[in-house]
Amino acid sequence: MTSTTIAKGILKAIGVLVAVVLTLYLLYLVQSVLIYLAVSLILTLIGMPIVKFLRNKCKFKNIFAVMTTLLIFVGIIFGFIMMFVPLIASQGHNLSLLNTAAIEQNIIQLIDQASSWLEGHNIDSGRLLKESNVTSKLNFKFIPNFLNIVLGTISSFGVGLASVLFITFFFLKDRKMFSNSLHTLLPQAHKGKILNSLDKMDHLLSRYFIGLIVQLSIIFVLYLIVLLIFGVQNALIIAFLCAILNIIPYIGPLIGSILAALLTMLSNLGSDFQSEILPTTIYVMIGFWIVQVIDNNLTGPLIFSNSVNSHPLEIFLVILVAGFLFGILGMVIAVPMYTILKVFAKEFFPENRFVQLLTRKI
């Protein structure tokens, strides 16, 4: 091997590395656009069954079916906004969402009440707090920064929503045009397998995202029932926030239960800790755990195993492995990514026994 060949190899490797870095940097600069495309793709997968129903059963023309589907999406989004914004505005003082001093005061008041209850049961709360050094770790300065992030997100929500709806409209309307363009770009040798994979992937992912919406809706209703039974203030908001957290498998429900307990305590400040705050919080926690038992053993496995044609144990192991490898984000995208890999594996490696075992229901 000559020095010229080695030099060319080094230059080629450097060129590839620079190209990769520049590509990653470019993707970083347009990350908002990528997020819009990802959200639009998810809405397209959810909306396609609606478009097909309107087109085939209701005899709508394609353009009207697409517009009706988008109007349904807009109606749902603005329905949530109209439902939650007035509630948050009217109950903001009770939840102390916008007042850092009130948050700190309420937490300290809650700790004082808990300390009094513990001392009434011969437990030295002062010594426990001193040894754990909890009070010195309580820092509420992060809240204004967090609120600034939230307000910034809300301010850009309008632009993002308009962009997502615009992209989704053309994804739904010109689906055949995109499909025909893809036909011309794919290599002839693997065109059939790739197109079959994309069709199956489209079908399974549509069912998955619709199933996810159904699961979150069921959890939201059950959470709301629990909170209303025990007379918790702001039940609608708390149930919605905790239900949304269930998007994160296994960890999300735990965070939701802790959040529900904290908000339940804060919403009952001024009441007697032993006779009202503590029992109500315990009952709410028990209710939330019962909902999770129902979801983990009944609704969740049934919905997801049927939507992506995978065994519940298979889904559990995939989410677990993805969580260890890629953290929370890995757990969120584990099932759709695993479904995509299964579909392509079945098309390209149909003779493999392991692939046959995993994809027998696809």
Task: Describe, in plain words, how this protein is organized in 3D.
This protein has 362 residues and is mainly alpha-helical. The protein has a domain at 185-362. Helices cover 85% and strands 0% of the residues. It is built from 15 helices and no strands. Helix 3 packs antiparallel against helix 8 (157-173) and helix 10 runs antiparallel to helix 14. Mean pLDDT is 76; it is low at 93-98.
Estimate what percentage of residues fall within beta strands.
Answer: under 5%
Largest sheet report: none
Structural class: mainly alpha
C-alpha Rg (nearest Å): 26 Å
Kindly list the characteristics that best describe this protein:
362 residues, mainly alpha
In short:
By secondary structure, the protein is an all-alpha fold. The protein contains 15 helices and no strands.
Topology:
Blueprint: H1 3-29, H2 31-56, H3 62-95, H4 100-120, H5 125-132, H6 134-137, H7 142-155, H8 157-173, H9 175-185, H10 191-229, H11 235-244, H12 251-267, H13 273-308, H14 312-348, H15 353-358
Helix pairs in contact: 2-3, 2-8, 2-10, 3-8, 10-11, 10-13, 10-14, 11-12, 12-13, 13-14
